[in-house]
Design a protein that fits this description.
- The protein has no helices and 11 strands.
- Strands 2, 4, 5, 6, 9, 10 and 11 form a 7-stranded mixed beta sheet that branches. A 4-stranded antiparallel beta sheet has the order 1-3-8-7, with no helix packed on it.
- The chain starts with a strand and ends with a strand.
- It has 122 residues and is an all-beta fold.
- It is globular.
Length: 122
């Protein structure tokens, strides 16, 4: 089992920045893929970004390319999502997820955090 705990959400004005953190613990393997998803009210869970734990290769959803950056800290088993130039449409609950293989579909991920709310005001 892998446990994931997100933090760093909050309220920010449009154009501002936030950094989300995800702490991973448990039977966490170096070959895992770590990802961020988000879900707004009434909408499906959407892929935001992912990073491979061993090589650090990154992937981004089209709506956040050029604005968000995913990174990791191997020593602390932490994953971060730096969110810049935030827009009201970025408002959602953001979830950290982990799995042994990469992908942009939430059904591919076995382990999830509890989520953290991000609200962007206009």
């Amino acid at each position: 089992q892998v446990q994931l705990v997100e933090s760093g959400g909050g309220l920010v004005q449009a154009g501002g920045s936030l950094r989300l953190s995800c702490a991973a613990s448990g039977r966490f393997f170096g070959t895992y893929v770590m990802a961020w998803f988000r879900q707004a009210p009434g909408k499906e869970r959407q892929f935001v970004a992912a990073i491979t734990w061993d090589s650090g290769r990154t992937f981004y959803g089209d709506s956040v390319k050029g604005r968000f950056i995913i990174s990791k800290d191997n020593t602390k088993t932490m994953v971060y999502l730096q969110m810049n130039s935030l827009k009201p449409e970025d408002t959602a609950v953001y979830y950290c997820a982990a799995d042994r293989s990469s992908g942009s579909s939430p059904v591919q991920y076995d382990f999830w955090g509890q989520g953290t709310q991000v609200t962007v005001s206009s």
